[in-house]
Design a protein that fits this description.
single chain, 3 helices
Length: about 80
């Protein structure tokens, strides 16, 4: 009985994961919408110390640029 339930649950979870992936692929990027930049600026002005969410690609590029700055400034820092 227990194994049957586990298999059934696993099947349901698999379906949910697939749906989530599909939904995420179909979601339009909010930054592609017209006026999104203006909204971002307004939000940044209103909440200056809010947490900004970055994509992993942005985070990686920021990390890489920080790394190159650190190496350019020398081993003293």
């Amino acid at each position: 009985m227990c194994g049957k339930w586990a298999r059934e649950l696993e099947g349901v979870l698999q379906k949910v994961r697939l749906q989530t992936v599909r939904r995420n692929k179909n979601m339009p990027d909010h930054r592609a919408l017209p006026g999104a930049a203006a909204l971002e600026k307004a939000a940044a002005a209103e909440y200056p110390n809010r947490i900004k969410f970055m994509s992993s690609r942005q985070r990686l590029s920021r990390k890489l640029s920080k790394g190159s700055e650190a190496s350019a400034s020398g081993p003293g820092q």
